[in-house]
């Protein structure tokens, strides 16, 4: 071990960052900021290779104009000032003619142009291309590898660079044909490529869980040199909903003896790479892997530096906290423009125009968090052509320092109200704490593993769901679950408190992040924090519904998928916080699609509270039904509210609906206030509702005279007449009411998700919702989120939309048992929880 450590300590390798991802490249300011960060961390290399930068790959033949080459020269100089090796990479493999001297000359001239501004290190990349040649190339070169060798060696000899790297088409063991050892392509490269040229390699896979000494020795034999690692551990370009903020892990410190360099190809979002970069730097400077059971050793009188990923991450977090309250970070890439042809863009742009008209946003100096979040929620809304020019002067301008971090209307983002379960929120932390950052990193950890906090969160949800029927029991004897374990209510409530505290930590994260002064850091993190907040609130809402005693069906044990090892590439299976939460919530594809459906809805970054609602909430529902026009006579307003409750709320509760949710906006002040936004009620037996409606409507007619109703829809037109065959496939009757203001679309979608998830948990196989034919906006909303148009009602005054929610993914193994002690009805207690709607 001593000799290994000594040689590792003496090893001099390239170590740093490759900007080699797909997606919007970093800005000039971010790259300069990176050079300073790498220098402070003791790293030494940066490679310019952004896949979607127009003159790097798609238009590689084009020389840079004066402005572009000047900016590139400034970057080269900035790297040198920070003792960073600047590697300029070119990717001509999409369409180069290998046998055409003019094509090879264009590669040389492109490199020479960059060399003339001070760059002395270069790379040719032939990754992610089809392994085939044009007819003229086939006549000249025996193999694809021979073509690559010829071009690369020629360019290398022409440039006479300080350093030169080459990326093969077979750049991971999973891409070798037929296998690593017998790959004709790689063996040809290893044998014929100039010995001073380094060869990039990603490991056993494109994104490799581990890099071992044994593997790298094997690769080195094929390459006839030490491989240069292109490390995709933290790359996130294959899934826009994921980022990876966990530590540099799965790479023994000892591999440094068997590689010529290692560059991290990181998250596309620059600011989220703080912990990955810092921990990689610790790895680079350490000489042995940590053994937690060993005391620190001494060799030749010097303390050994042991690398421990988790301890390194904690040190990085302590430093990162200060970044949140720096004045500002480097400018971010420009936000993609909304494609007006995308479904839903009309609603979204309508909101944006309204904000501008009201002075809420400035066209020139706005900080558009909602637009940033939309690129995560519905990434296809952006302009279809993602190729950009990051070397143009107007690619990204530095943000104004004197602007408030968030537009005035969106200042409610900081008002993340704590649930009534946890008491007062007046002493909430105002700056990020170690706890906040740890939880954030646990939620967005690594492609092959969740952090401890996320794992515990999933475990608690599964336990609460599997044993939730105990909250429906009437006595203290408890409930025997399918594992034969007796669960009591107090046990369940203890687990609930743990689960709530973890979710509340995410609420706190969103609240404190909104107050951070570093706008650029917030802009990179906020889409993911927002998404985490929203989907976790749905989890919490479902658990609260279970707590109220509404779960009737004893579920089979939830598959602990969060422990499953991913043996292939991480994109081969849908994972990550968002997908994992969907799998916890939904066991049917149609319900999953309610979450996954990438539609464009207008967003509002405010705090919403979604909770089960009861008969005691009639006053809030009444408020929703009252005309907002202040000129209306108060008596008329009150009558309007009474009619609203009588028509849209009371009948469902009277008939025994158990899937009822209300959404309120929380506005924090000296005294917090709540404003009802929308609500949804559903009865699992729609046929029963229709059967009882005539008697109910007779009572309503007696309550309201014809004179009272003269300005309102007559009682007889309140509800549709639904054909019997609808109830066969869509037995549940859903009724929703939300303002036609497009701001309410997102919270309403969350309510529908909560209703459908809870219906599915009680094995209701489908749900329909009647919409008056005149309310086309509401109809379009349901069609957009995934409901099917079922046609007109028998009275032809309503359009019916429906969703099947069969449990088709995880089949039940046996009939429901052990329900003798379960009540068929319960009143439940009023509950509330925080939600930021998607």
From TrEMBL:
Where's the GH84 domain? Answer: 13-288
Enzyme Commission (EC) number: 3.2.1.169
InterPro entries, sorted: GH, Glycosyl_Hydrolase_84, O-GlcNAcase_cat
The molecular function GO annotations come to: [protein]-3-O-(N-acetyl-D-glucosaminyl)-L-serine/L-threonine O-N-acetyl-alpha-D-glucosaminase activity; beta-N-acetylglucosaminidase activity
Q: Where is the stretch described as Disordered?
A: 818-838
Hydrolase is among the record's keywords: yes
| Keywords carried by this UniProt record | Glycosidase, Hydrolase
| BP-aspect Gene Ontology terms | glycoprotein metabolic process
- Record protein name field: protein O-GlcNAcase
